[in-house]
Amino acid sequence: MFQIEKTLLETLSGYLGSIPFQIILIFAIAIFLNAMVRIAISRFVKGAIKRANEKAPQFKRLADNTAELSAMVMQQRTVQRVKAVGQLFKSATTFVIWTVAIMSSLSMIGFNVGPLLASAGVAGVALGFGAQTLIKDFLAGIFIILEDQYGVGDVVDLGPAIGTVEEVDLRVTRLRDMGGVVWYVRNGEILRVANRSQGWTVATFDVPVSYNEDLEKVRVVIDRVGKEMLEDPAFSGMLLGAPQYAGVEQVSGDAIFVRIVAKTAPDQPMQTAREIREKLKGAFDKAGIKVPVLVRPYPTSSGMPPNNPTQR
């Protein structure tokens, strides 16, 4: 009986010590580690998203100050950023684990990996000198994702082009401008980013009123319209604060141009300005506030304007 057990142990030791078994064991460990790391990263991502959703308020338009408003709106971008970083870490850890596993297996079958590693180092240096631009693009892409400089759907100014981001890769960023043209911008060539979709933005425009109008009356009407729009659910996804009378911007002829500012959602400044103008037109009509009509004189055949241009 003892002899049989000894034979089994020797046979088992022989199998465990065999190179094929060890190689299979290395790949099994690599698969296990890769799965565990991916699960851990997925749990971290889910936990971060859950915490972000718990902290994010239900849409609050009235904020005490700009810093508070920025913190509330920027919280919504955390989910997208965490997902991107999680995917980046998954790819990096998978590459490292399988590289180590393959090198270990080659070493066990008698392949001298020392020269291979040395050659890879020399090739890496040569490739680094020859592909500096490519490496620069990849490093810039990693930091763009990690720092959340912009994401898909953001309206950005990257210098060469201005448009909506459609895809962010490690090497290039693809965006579509207002004319529908698709731009591919290398990440390494992006020296500055103007993101118009993070947090909030301000819609600023001027409205002309007659020179003889009471500016206090104009201010009261504008502020009243702003409060009504802020309380209207139809503008809940557009306004982040009541449109306000900012003061007189310009005095020209029969017109006084008053400036109106409104804090809006990042992608809504132009639409917000249109809606406010429409509401103000009706409010001015009801309040009897006149908006001057400035008629530009047409040039005559001599190229000079007529002697008596009309202006109302």
Biggest sheet details: 5 strands, antiparallel
Rg to the nearest angstrom?
33 Å
Topology as H/E string? HHHHHHEEEEEEHEEH
Q: CATH top level of the largest domain?
A: Mainly Alpha
What is the average per-residue confidence, as pLDDT, rounded to a whole number? Answer: 76
- The CATH topology of the largest domain is given as Helix Hairpins
How do the strands of the widest beta sheet line up side by side? Answer: 4-3-2-1-5
Helix count?
8
Number of strands: 8
CATH architecture of the largest domain: Orthogonal Bundle
The gross shape turns out to be elongated
Number of domains: 3
Based on the structure, what is the oligomeric state of the protein chains? Answer: single chain
Percent helix among the residues?
A: 40-55%
Straight-line distance between termini: 118 Å
Strand content: 15-25%
Structural class: alpha+beta
Uncertain stretches of 5 or more adjacent residues: 56-65, 308-312
